Amino acid sequence: MARFEENYEILESDRLGRYLVAKRDLARGELILVERPTVVGPHWDSDVCCLNCFRNSCTICRLCRRAPLCYDCTGHDEAECRFYRESNLDINFLFNHFNVVTSVRCLLLYRTDRDRFWEMRRMEAHLEKRRGSEIWDILSKYVVEPLLQNGAFDRVGDGEGEKLTVNEDLIQHCCGVFDVNAFEIRGNGTSQSVQQNCFVRGLYPRAALMAHDCVPNAFISVDGESNLRVYAAVPIEKGQMVLFNYTRCLFGTFERRAHLRKGKYFLCTCARCEDPTELGTHLCSVRCTNCSAGLCSYYSKVTKWKCDKCPHELTREYVKQVFTNARNDAMARSFEIPELEEAITRHSATLNPRNSLVLELKQTLAGELRNLCLASHPANVPRHLLQRKLELCAELLDVLRVLEPGISRLTAIGLYEYNVSLWNVTRKNFETKEISAKELLDNLIKGESGLKQSISMLLFEHPTTPEGQLTKRAMQDLKELREEIAQVRALVGSNLKPLAEDKPSIID
Ligand SMILES: [Zn+2]
Ligand SMILES: [Zn+2]
Ligand SMILES: [Zn+2]
Ligand SMILES: [Zn+2]
Description:
Elements (H helix, E strand, L loop, with lengths): L7 E6 L3 E6 L8 E5 L3 E3 L17 E2 L7 E2 L8 H9 L6 H4 L4 H12 L1 H9 L4 H4 L3 H16 L18 H14 L1 E4 L12 E5 L7 E2 L5 E5 L5 E5 L10 E2 L8 H12 L6 H4 L11 E2 L7 E5 L4 E4 L5 E2 L1 H16 L5 H14 L5 H20 L7 H21 L5 H23 L5 H22 L7 H31 L12
Parallel strand pairs: 9-12
Antiparallel strand pairs: 1-2, 3-11, 4-8, 5-6, 7-8, 10-11, 13-14, 14-15, 15-16
Helix pairs in contact: 3-4, 6-7, 10-12, 11-12, 12-13, 13-14, 14-15, 14-16, 15-16
């Protein structure tokens, strides 16, 4: 993979540690690096699953007689199998202490790939910040103690020179490295079928050097063999940092910062976090109680909620109350469409229609409407519901354009849903003679262009992932849409012939 060295270089600073910088101008969509994982493993609190593919397990490995496997898998990693086979661990050890799996894999690198072991050892685990914390104590109980008390590592390193001393700090380091650096990926191996959403974590030391920004310029895609690819989402100039968003794009600043502080141990001070309006998206803003048009945002320097239209300020107690109300509804959300609509109306009035908590409810609603469209033929879905889905997608795309510019998985999915809805609504409007054939044609062409844009982003997704499946469906839809456009064009052509001079561009 030597040629990727031309794309980036690794720099170091006191504030950021090591980070990636573009070594030359990178075009939108350009592949920056490909990396195979050092270790892939389940989250420490995962349920027992197959050690080979991470789906539900139903049997055990015949060789080591300890590793859980599924119906399809007959074995797992050879070094891991040997480790459990040669250990004196109880036959039910992994069923009682499944939490240890990923740490054991990290430690086994010492046997299988010494360079990668030391690379893992050098990665940031924030041990001192974690020591004595809640997560430290939990990991002590569920990972460290079972391994040390059962003497699991008494034999690692045997016959291969230097013996590895496995102690509490080393095991906590393995856990910390995963918490701080790992990427969430889908687990299933190489099968051609669609990967299920059984999420595991993969350690990629190179990709983990990407610094964080709440408005990233890079995105990742993982294939069926857990190889991770980093691409430029927008053009990245030589010398610019390669930036990835390690938290959720549609979280508001308070939630993003809390998530990053708790999981990654830093306070984000990116442009988006430092702007009270979140780059004008108002994801955290609350409606002013004094004027009708104003939105109040939090100015951390003066610790005040100030209105952008009048001198009014909101009290912290009031803001806390409206946030709590909305958060409770977002968590206890009912999946009935009328209840969701009611909650959206209520919280839009106190927060604002684009507040992240309202957007969360809207995403749930859009999902419900999509399910409805999938469950019955679009022709049977009431037009106002299709129209509503269209509105919700448009709103989400507006926000994403600012917060996840360029190529983005969320944008790709949003564009797909938007344009399919546009197609269905337009067709209904034409059937009821509310629009002319020409307007139908215009909207279909618009839908075609949007669908093409969506596909251009979805093509980065590996075919075995659910997004990869969506790519296939989108391409099939595009084919059908083009056939329909050809038919309508013929219709418009014949109908408009006498008027052809009026609007020649329509049938171009
Ligand atoms: Zn399996
Ligand atoms: Zn085995
Ligand atoms: Zn930030
Ligand atoms: Zn105001």
